[in-house]
Structures are given as structure tokens and as C-alpha cells.
Amino acid sequence: MKILAIESSCDETAAAVVENGRKILSSVVATQIESHKIFGGVVPEIASRMHIEAISAVVDEALEKASVTLSDLDAIAVTYAPGLIGALLVGVNFAKGLSLATGLPLIPVHHLRGHIASNYLTYPDLEPPFMCLVVSGGHSHIVTVDDYTSFKIIGKTRDDAAGECLDKAARAMGIPYPGGVNLDKIAANGNDLAYCLPHPRVDGSEYDFSFSGLKTAAINIIHNAEQKGEKINREDLCASYLKAVTDCLCKNTVKAMEEFGYKKLALAGGVSANSVLRRRMKELSVQHGWQLFLPELSLCGDNAAMIGSQAYYEFKKGNVASQSLNAYATMPIDNPVF
Ligand code: KG4
Ligand code: ZN
User: Fold this and answer.
1) Pairing state of beta strands 291-293 and 264-268?
2) For 256, which DSSP code?
3) Average of pLDDT values for 34-55?
4) Which residues line ligand 1 (CB under 6 A)?
5) Which of 27, 85, 131, 207 is within CB 3.0–4.6 Å of 305 for a Cys-Cys bond?
6) Least distant ligand from the CA of 295
7) Backbone angles phi, psi at 135, to 5 degrees
8) Percent of the chain clearing pLDDT 90 (strictly above)
9) % helix / strand / coil in the chain, to the nearest 5?
10) Which ligand is nearest to the CA of 307?
């Protein structure tokens, strides 16, 4: 089964053709990073307009690279939630148009389910059940993937997502957008014990995260130094901050893995590209005897191949949308509606 998938939930316009959920025939990503860089973050209105400009060419390129035409396809898939509403609407409307014109089924895909599916593309033999730490710019979840379309949230962030926490502190340090990526590189040359940062916990909920206090603590260090005319050591602060964020992610994940007795752990989402998080999860997996699944770096960030992969399993479950499909800025991963 060949699925054309479209993704436009944030600042990448992406299209891919994926066969039977596991084989990428093509994957095209047009990034808007340069346009948002001068603002220090994604500007939703600009993102929507740029998706409109890019989407036709990106879809054409995906079809061409896969050496298929619309008549070779079996379905059209699209990210419909969660994300920036104006950005999502571009992909959803384009996919609806293609579905109407071709008569092909329209498969709505939850963005975070797509991120998890990037592991199916990296590891053709991986099958649920497994536990997954999903860490992106907008979400931080520990979920159990009990089946391809059955998820249970074990823990999630009560405030900022891990990616957002990295991006905001990076911005305060004058590190260009996308902050998390650049902070990762700068941290590589720093001492992660140089700065003492809090490790916030959520009272009564050992699997939930809270990152806003940690972010504020880092920003306070930066502002205090500025006010005193002192210089912070950027490498050391990046390394210490990244250590604090990954400490929180690792601690709750270990607890969840032990408590729920899973032996397979996957990472997913943009922050799963982080070098420190990957290294520490590898160490923990050896220590605890888990099998660890890390998405290929090219599949960690937003792309449409992961959407095409998850779409295959959504379709098999009968999750097909009508022409009334809408986009949603928020949507739970465990019980999505469309
Ligand atoms: O999944 P994603 O591409 O978009 C969302 O769905 O949000 O995640 C983007 C997030 C951003 O916060 C970005 O800074 C972060 O992933 N990110 C990283 C790295 N690469 C991307 N954070 C830390 N280290 C990285 N290497
Ligand atoms: Zn994403």
C-alpha cells in the first residue's frame, strides 16, 4: 500500500511516499528556519503563508522522487493535530483537495503518533508493545504504545515542553533559533557540573515533568550576570542546563520502565536528536537490560515519512476521515477525534 503523506504542523512543509508503513520511497522537507530566525522563534502567520507557497512543489517533488503518480497511490495522509492551527489547515485542506480529486481515502494522523512511528522506519522489525519518551518542541510525554493505534499516557509535562525549555533558555543566551539544536553543539564543550540548577518534580505524580522553573532558573542566572556586568560561561551553562533537562527526562523514564515492566524503550520527537539524551539513554539501557530504539537523526525532526508510516496503521484500524476533516491545535494522543 502506497501512501502520500503531508505534514505542515509547524515550520516544515513536508511530503513523503511510504510503502506499507515501513519503506520510504521519498521524503521531502522544506524548512522555514531561515525566515523565522530573525524573530528568534516560529511566527505562526509567516509559517502558514510559507506552507501555502511551498506545498504544491513539495508534494510534486515527493511524487517525482518516488517515481509515482497520483494514480499509483492508495491513500492520502495528513497531520491534522496538534500544532499551529493556521499551519495545519494548509496541509489538511491540500490533502482534502487531493482526496476529493482522486477519490483516494483520507487518513488523519496525530503528529505525536507520527513521531513515534519514525521508529518503525528506522527499525523495520520493531513492533508494539513498547514504552516511548516523546520529546518535541511542544510536548513531553511518556507513553506506552500497546498497539500501533493504542496509546496510554503515563506522564507528561505540566507546563513547558523539553524542547521549548531548551529553545527559550538558548534565546536568553543569544543562541540563534533553533535554540535546542545549537545549544546541543555548544554544550559539547562545556562542564555540565559548573552551574547548579534545580530539578523540578511534580508533587504526587512521579512520571510528570515540569520544566518552567528550570527554564526560569537559567534565565535568572543570565540576567543576574548581565546586571552585575559579569560574563557567563556559555558552554558551561549550556552543558549544565542540558544535564538538568536530561536528568529529569531520564529519571521519570527509568521509573516508568521499572514500574510498568517494559523491556523496549523508544525515543521520539525533535529533542530525541539531542546527543546527551541519546548517550544517557544508551547507558541506561545497557545498565537496565532494555532494548533501545532511537530514530535515525533525519527522522527525529518534523517530516512526512513518519506520518506516512503511522497512517498505514491508522488505515488498517479503519481510521479514515471524511471531507469534513478539520485541524486542531490540541488533541490527546490516547483518544484523538477527527
Ligand atoms: O518534533 P519537532 O521537530 O517539532 C515539534 O513537533 O515541536 O521538535 C522541535 C524541537 C525544538 O524545540 C528543537 O530545539 C528541538 O526539537 N531539537 C533539539 C535538537 N534538535 C531539535 N533539542 C536538543 N538537541 C537537539 N539536537
Ligand atoms: Zn514534531
Assistant:
1) parallel
2) H
3) 95
4) 10, 115, 136-138, 163, 166-167, 178-181, 184, 269-271, 273-274, 301-302
5) 27
6) 1
7) -130, 110
8) 97
9) 45, 20, 35
10) 2
